[in-house]
Amino acid sequence: MASSGLPSNIGLVQFCNSGSEANETAIKIACQYHVERGHPQKHMIVSRWQGYHGMTIGALSASGHVVRRTKFGLLLHNWPKIPAPLCYRCAYDMKYPSCGIKCARALEETINQVGAQFVSAFMAEPIGGAGTACMVPVKEYYPIIRDICDRHDILFLDDEVICGFGRTGKWFGIDHWGVQPDIITVAKSMTGGYTPMAAVLIDKKIGQVFDETGAPFVHGFTMEGNPVSAAGVLAVLDIIESQGLVERSARMEEHFFRVGRERLAHHPTVGDIRGKGLLMGIELVKDRQTKEPFDPKLKVGNLFQRLAMARGCMVYPTAGVDNGVRGDHYLVSPPYNVTEAQIDEAFSMLDAAQTDFENELLQ
Question: What residues of the chain score a pLDDT lower than 50?
Answer without folding.
Answer: none
